[in-house]
Amino acid sequence: MSIYFKGLSSINGPLVAIEGVENAVFDELVELVDDTGHTRLGRVIEMQGDRCLIQVFESTDGLSKNNVVTKLTGKPIEIGLSEEILGRSFNGSGAPIDGLGPVFTEKFMDINGRVINPVSRIYPRNFINTGVSAIDGLNTLIRGQKLPIFSGSGLSHNELAAQIVRQAKLHGDNDESFAIVFAAMGVKHDVAAFFKQTFIENGVMDHVTMFLNLANDPIIERILTPRFALTAAEYLAFEKNMHILVVMTDITSYCEALREYSSSKEEVPGRKGYPGYLYSDLASMYERAGCIEGSEGSLTQIPILTMPNDDISHPIADCTGYITEGQIVLDRGLQQRGIYPPINVLPSLSRLMKDGIGEGLTRADHAPLSAQLFASYARVIDVRNLASVIGLDELSKDDQRYLAFGKLFESLYVGQGNLSNRNIFETLELGWNLLSLLPAHDLDRLDREILDTYYLPDKAITFFKENSPELLDPALFETIK
């Protein structure tokens, strides 16, 4: 039942208060109509006795204590959903912005999601191919996983997000339904146009649903945008049995909006001014990913955040790292050297990778190959540090070989470019070609049977001579047998 109230008791930024309220419900949808007939939406965020605090989604400009009629609708904020949302674009409040008219609604769902019984969760096992070797080969994305990308201001995370949306697909010849929900929070107009144009030009827009909150949109809308997107994803995944990948950028903009909102409520700030409930608020979004018993679909998340001052210990990155199952870390030094995507594989991690790769899933040699590539690249970093002290000329032949390996690894394996879409077998073969340039006695993460099958130095040298001769110094590899 709807209840109407005349007037407001206070106005403070995006927050207004009314008094004499009974039976208001937390997160209840509110309509505020001014004397010009303009309707603003809001939600109940706090009750203090008979005083009700309301968060207004739009600007409160033009509102006064006497010219507003407030309607408590008696229901939460909902979004109308059907399979028609695929291929459509919405603003941060769930309204269509693509000029194609309203969406035919099959079902309304509360944007705050439904509580998932942990017992009903199914452990994620299946692999999603992003076409990016540094992710697929070394930090594999698994269906139902939440795998964030830690970036920095000015790094190419937007390009990487667009590439993942263009290229992501289920592994193998799979006839299961796959779609992507893309949510952008606080992005500039040119960034929003870049994403939309990229998806249209590459012919993937028909299986993408976009939610766009622009930098000049209200901050309160920014707080709702990921919840509208995740509710749409839950509907497609758990009602329509589709496999959904949710890409959200930028979580830092969301958290800054949350900090501003918390400040307007005069809450006691926590670390660096962020509210003390930052962790639980992020968890309320991230934990909506997963696979649920009784549904054939899955919901996978790739949240993207820019670390202020490239500080991985910043509260946003810190909380995200605790909640999620790993991270993909972008490196400023790699980008400055022209390597794209600039993924630093050593601090990157996918905690669910071990259960989604191997025989019957990707290939039997995937796990040991990945471990050896990590170990070999870690030695490259050690050798570079040593060379900075004693000089390149003083390095041993093996150390110089590792430097050459590191150059090829970063330029070809990691730096594949934004137009390259590799399947998992191409990624694995490239990894073996790289390892075959190193002495066999150094490859201690690989057993003899695997080495006998895949360790082929002559084939590797031929491959690099044909594909990247400018990066290869043949003299360094003449004795590898």
UniProtKB/TrEMBL annotation:
InterPro entries: ATP-synt_VA_C (IPR055190), ATPase_a/bsu_AS (IPR020003), ATPase_F1/V1/A1_a/bsu_N (IPR004100), ATPase_F1/V1/A1_a/bsu_N_sf (IPR036121), ATPase_F1/V1/A1_a/bsu_nucl-bd (IPR000194), P-loop_NTPase (IPR027417), V-ATPase_su_B/beta (IPR022879). One of its GO terms (cellular component) is proton-transporting ATP synthase complex. GO terms for biological process: proton motive force-driven plasma membrane ATP synthesis; vacuolar acidification. Residues 131-350 form the ATPase F1/V1/A1 complex alpha/beta subunit nucleotide-binding domain. It holds the Pfam family ATP-synt_ab. It comes from the Bacteria. Residues 9-70 form the ATPase F1/V1/A1 complex alpha/beta subunit N-terminal domain. CDD domains: ATP-synt_V_A-type_beta_C, ATP-synt_V_A-type_beta_N, V_A-ATPase_B. Keywords: ATP synthesis, Hydrogen ion transport, Ion transport, Transport. GO terms for molecular function: ATP binding; proton-transporting ATP synthase activity, rotational mechanism; proton-transporting ATPase activity, rotational mechanism. Residues 355-455 form the ATP synthase A/B type C-terminal domain. Produces ATP from ADP in the presence of a proton gradient across the membrane. The V-type beta chain is a regulatory subunit. Belongs to the ATPase alpha/beta chains family. NCBIfam families: PRK04196.1. This is V-type ATP synthase beta chain.
